[in-house]
Amino acid sequence: MNILVLGGGGREHSLVWAIRQNPKTDRLICAPGNAGIAMIAETASLNIEDPDAVTDFAIRHSIDFVVIGPEAPLVAGVADALRNAGILCFGPSAAAARLEGSKSFMKEIASACGAPTAAHARFESADAAKDHIRAQGAPIVVKADGLAAGKGVIVAATVAEALEAVDHIFQGAFGAAGSSILVEEFMRGEEASFFVLTDGRDSLPIGTARDHKRAHDGDAGPNTGGMGAYSPAPILDEATAARALEEIVKPTVEEMARRGTPYQGVLYAGLMIENGTPRLVEYNARFGDPECQVLMMRLGGQALDLMIACAEGRLTGARVNWADDHAITVVMASRGYPGAYGKGSVIRGLDALPRDSFHMVFHAGTTAVDGRVTATGGRVLNVTARGDSLAGARDRAYAMVDRVDWPEGHYRTDIGAREF
Ligand code: AMP
Ligand code: GLY
């Protein structure tokens, strides 16, 4: 099969790595890719948010299967265009990706299907939102309604902070995403990510993970795209995952199908778990980054078969071959991220690191310059390892981190620490 992967982050490197291991794979192209992806696949420059450009590219290169990594092409309708052209594609339609692209749409679906989530109210004016916040009190959560690259959420500890967030959003801090806002009940508990493949009818859980959103050790500092992750997430044990599937994911999949906009792809449910009861924080219409890296490390080549079965509507009877293993990824970021950071520093020592089914450094923001790997993004490397225990995987990952020679880099030293 000729396969095209869209995206160029650590998530896509791990997808390409897993797909490469499957004997079904013939030609493998990733657009735009990065320096690490270029070591194991062809890369191509392509505007991946342009549905026609992607479809033309796929036809010209005789692509049999397209895997869409990030949310922006989904929301732009790339999956729709590919399917209209008869090209098999992993990723939801634009209408279904609204589960991520519009927080008020997610709430509408949750309420229609009875999936438990935080109580909320939606506002298009600051004054009404502020009155509501004063009446509710803190802690309280304020969100820009649209896609804001994971940054449009303010968990306010005080009413003053929440009021400030309202002004911030309406003053355009998140662009068009902030033309309306949601004010939500603050949910207590522990967070975990639940990944389920769905073909629009059947749902197949493929793993759990836990992200580390804050920039610094001890969950201090600003929110980031994610500084590390591990899988499985012990808090999402078998019984809790079964409840999340029955009470949240399946009703959502049924509601989307009932509306004539079936969801096909991976549905990533961000859950808040309190005393074994899961509630929905948010949906994403794609794999998490860096959660995908730990999932792919555990799934390996079978990930391709599962994604194809999902895209072909054949999830009935599909199974995941689980190993009783653990994976962890440590994100190495440019110093300063998520704020301003320097670009172009050289990373040394990567060639000497092991590369096998227990060890892998996935690249995110890297570019090859004169044969050297340079840092060109905020999140730059995902140092990933697998083991029989989380502690074993963690030790392997940090042993690799220690051997990366990159003085301009920054990483958290406590990924997974809450489990020890
Ligand atoms: P989101 O972008 O919706 O995932 O929100 C970012 C983060 O804000 C989540 O991962 C949670 O940590 C937190 N959060 C969002 N909504 C709530 C809520 N209703 N209660 C508590 N925490 C929340
Ligand atoms: N790591 C969080 C996300 O991908 O949304």
List the defining traits of the structure above.
420 residues; alpha+beta; Rossmann fold; Dna Ligase, domain 1; D-amino Acid Aminotransferase, Chain A, domain 1; 4 domains; 9-stranded antiparallel sheet; binds adenosine monophosphate; binds glycine
User: Structural class, from secondary structure content?
Assistant: alpha+beta
β-strand number: 23
Can you tell me the CATH topology of the largest domain? D-amino Acid Aminotransferase, Chain A, domain 1
What is the alpha-carbon Rg in Å?
A: 21 Å
The CATH superfamily of the largest domain appears as: ATP-grasp fold, B domain
Topology of helices and strands:
Layout: E1 3-7, H1 10-20, E2 28-32, E3 42-43, H2 51-60, E4 65-68, H3 71-75, H4 78-84, E5 88-90, H5 94-101, H6 103-113, E6 120-123, H7 126-136, E7 140-144, E8 153-156, H8 159-170, E9 181-185, E10 190-198, E11 203-211, E12 214-216, E13 220-223, E14 228-231, H9 238-258, E15 265-274, E16 277-284, H10 291-299, H11 302-311, E17 326-334, E18 346-347, E19 359-363, E20 366-369, E21 372-375, E22 379-387, H12 390-403, E23 409-411
Parallel strand pairs: 1-2, 1-4, 2-3, 4-5
Antiparallel strand pairs: 6-9, 7-8, 7-9, 10-11, 10-15, 11-14, 12-13, 14-17, 15-16, 17-22, 17-23, 18-21, 19-22, 20-21
Helix pairs in contact: 1-10, 2-4, 5-6, 6-9, 7-8
The structure holds adenosine monophosphate and glycine.
